Amino acid sequence: MPVILDPDGYDLWLDPGMRDAGAASDLLKPYDARLMRCHPVSTRINYVGNDDEEWSAPVELARFRVVSSRIRTRRAP
Q: Residue 65 to residues 23, 62, 68: CA-CA distances in angstroms?
């Protein structure tokens, strides 16, 4: 899972002069899943050329009708 840094750790994480691996390691803690949110996004996210905020905007999923079909299988002789 990717690391999600607490905003209080941004400056330390991004400090190019920081050489304390222990301090950096202390920032790598599991993020509270109760604080996370998820939503479907556009397939625009699949293309690196789409470098804008639109790719991460929530989208409404299309509703699909499920059609059942029978699958024929042969029995072994």
A: 52, 10, 10
The pTM of the full predicted model, rounded to 2 decimals, is 0.48
- The angle formed by the CA atoms of residues 49, 16 and 25, to the nearest 5 degrees, is 95
Residue 27 makes CB contacts below 8 A (sequence gap 6+) with 3, 5, 6, 9, 12, 13
The answer to whether 24 and 18 are in contact (CB under 8 A) is: yes
Query: Residues 13, 27: contact at Cβ < 8 Å?
Result: yes
pLDDT in tens, 34-66: 888 888 888 888 888 888 888 788 888 776 555
